[in-house]
Amino acid sequence: MPRLNNAFAFRGGCHCGQLRVDFSTALDPASITPRACDCSFCQKHGAAYISDPAGQLSVTMQSADALRRYRQGSNTAEFLLCDRCGVLVAVVFEHNARIYGAVNARSLDGATGFGAAIPASPQLLAPGEKVERWSQLWVPDVELVTSDR
Fold it and tell me: How far apart (Å, rounded) are the C-alpha atoms in residues 32 and 142?
């Protein structure tokens, strides 16, 4: 993983390459503990999310139709999946005109050195509690970009 300007930069994406993710953080990867959501959707996708409220996250799509969005449960969060290969790359939610997000650590290329994943149970929280928690933990101002490749 490259280290630029005292930040760790991670790249990744889906299996077929239609979606790319870039996540950067000043946090040492060893101090980052992926959160494995215990809902059936995330478990079936093997998702374990990482974030940093002082970090940056962008999702780049080859085309506007490359991204499949899925909501479930309380409909508070929106899961971002590849329309072609189905890989879950990130989760986002919008609050106060800002997009917050967390990246699926398992979609990052060569992402090693993180702490062991721990279970998380957002389904036990009310929608307002989720928004409060995620506003504190997730990356603010996530960029969703369509490229012209």
Answer: 19
The closest of 26, 44, 36, 53 to 104, measured between CA atoms, is 36
Tens-digit pLDDT profile for residues 1-59: 444 454 899 999 999 999 999 999 999 999 999 999 988 899 999 999 999 999 999 99
Q: Which helix (H) or strand (E) holds 106?
A: none
What is the spatial distance between Cα 96 and Cα 89, in angstroms, rounded to a whole number? 23
CATH fold of the domain at 3-146: 2.170.150
List, in order, residues 6 or more apart from 44 with CB less than 8 Å away: none
Per domain, the residue ranges of the chain are: 3-146
114's CB contacts (< 8 A; 6+ apart) are 29, 30, 32, 33, 34, 50, 105
What is the pTM assigned to this prediction? Answer: 0.90
List, for residues 73-83, the tens digit of each pLDDT value. 778 899 999 99
Residue appearing with tokens 């930040």: 7
Q: Would you call 83 exposed, middle or buried from its count of C-beta atoms within 10 A (0-12, 13-18, 19+)?
A: middle
Look at residue 2 and give its three-state secondary structure.
Answer: coil
